[in-house]
Amino acid sequence: MDAQLKKGFLEFCVLAALKDADSYGYQIVKDVSTCIEISESTLYPILKRLETSQQVSTYSVEHNSRLRKYYQITDKGIGQINRFLEDWDEIEKIYKFIKGDKEDE
Amino acid sequence: MNKQEFLERLENLLNKLSPSEREKAISYYSEMIEDFIEDGCTQEEAVIKVGTPGQIAETILSEDVSNKSKKESTPAKKMLIATLIVLGSPFWGAFVLMGLMLLLTGFCLLLVGYMLLWTIPFLMGTLTVVSVILSVVSTLGSFAIMQSNLALGLTQFGVGVIASGLFILLAISTGMISKYFVVITKNVWGWVDINCLQRLRGIKLW
């Protein structure tokens, strides 16, 4: 997929991975990878952006005598997902326009 | 490369970041490697899977720069406001303005001094040009004079030869002095650049 387009989608995919349950870095990469390619190094800046824009919050949990950082989606993050889903009609319209289908034909 | 080496290398590459940002990145990658190992990878495999420290640092630093440039407008605005407050106050404003004027005067004096210095090579250059004209005109002209008055012509020829000699000496010394001045200028500028300008730009030298 086009790199720019993918970059836009990834943020929503990461949010979606946190929608049902809190998760940590390694697990997020695994979950998101089932639908779109993501690496550990691409995830890091995304999580940082989501954290600074307060779409996710973080907390640490002890695991095997080390700390694991968990990410939790905030209301703002859920709002972001919903806004993306609401934009679907518009995205479909763009898709059709690019493809060349005219609606009124 | 084992985990320890990987994290140390990454930490070194991220030394431009604030300690807290650096710590965040280090603990993120440390956690990732641990999780890979827990999932059955060896330490070496885990390190390879998360990527090279160089690439990782590049991604993080490029991201950090874009964040900073957005925030930078606020300190600049604060500086402007602080300057306006100081300049606007009747007491301190006068002092600061006076200081600024003194600085400006000092700068102008330095500039004038520097220009005066260059008048030496300029004067010598002018003399060089004069001497070359004199030598050519005298030498050629002396032949014409010789036909009517031999003694005067010969004297004139001698003047031409002397002028040629002067021209050679002047040309060489002008070239040398100019070079010397350029070297001095470069050295002084280099010193100003390192001690004032780079410090102003926030580059750490020591």
Automatic annotation (TrEMBL), chain A:
Pfam families per UniProt: PadR
Annotated ranges, domain Transcription regulator PadR N-terminal: 14-78
Listed SUPFAM superfamilies: Winged helix' DNA-binding domain (SSF46785)
Leader peptide range in chain numbering: none
InterPro entries (alphabetical): Metal_resp_DNA-bind_regulator, Tscrpt_reg_PadR_N, WH-like_DNA-bd_sf, WH_DNA-bd_sf
PANTHER family documented for this protein: PADR-FAMILY TRANSCRIPTIONAL REGULATOR, TRANSCRIPTIONAL REGULATOR, PADR FAMILY
Protein name: PadR family transcriptional regulator, regulatory protein PadR
Native source organism of the sequence: Anaerorhabdus furcosa
UniProtKB/TrEMBL annotation, chain B:
Keywords of this entry: Membrane, Transmembrane, Transmembrane helix
Recorded superkingdom: Bacteria
Transmembrane segments: 79-112, 118-145, 157-182
Protein name: Uncharacterized membrane protein
Organism of provenance: Anaerorhabdus furcosa
